[in-house]
Specification:
mainly beta; outer membrane lipoprotein receptor (LolB), chain A; five-stranded antiparallel beta sheet; about 40% strand
């Protein structure tokens, strides 16, 4: 997975890429990001009541997954829509362009064109 968010007046551009493991769904789940050597770089867990980000020995708590993503990336990302796209659902969302033309090869690209800042999420799924 790679995520890129363009710079805003208050924050520089954000970008990262990592292998990942996703469990659960939009309401409750866990997401692990791994280093190139396979160790856990960060872990996110969420429920309807809260979300937590653990990176190294530091844990941060948030009211929900949407708040966590907004704080970490500096822009909102539609969690429920992301899960739909990962499942192959052609969910349309205002401001987003989703390319699932290579879904059979495990590739998905989602671009937010409005509102600013623009953002891009690229996912390569492995069985």
């Amino acid at each position: 997975m790679s995520v890129r968010v363009e710079a805003t007046a208050g924050q520089g551009p954000q970008a990262f890429s990592s292998t990942f493991e996703l469990q659960g769904g939009p309401a409750q789940g866990q997401l692990y990001f791994y280093t190139p050597l396979g160790s856990t770089a960060a872990a996110i867990s969420w429920t309807p009541e809260q979300a937590q980000l653990q990176s190294g020995s530091q844990t941060q708590s948030f009211n929900n997954m949407a708040e966590l993503i907004d704080r970490v990336l500096g822009t909102p990302v539609p969690v429920a829509a992301l899960f739909a796209w990962l499942a192959g659902d052609h969910l349309s969302l205002d401001g987003w362009q989703v390319d699932q033309s290579q879904f059979d090869s495990g590739k998905i690209t989602a671009r937010r064109i409005s509102p600013a800042p623009s953002a891009e999420i690229r996912v390569v799924l492995e069985p």
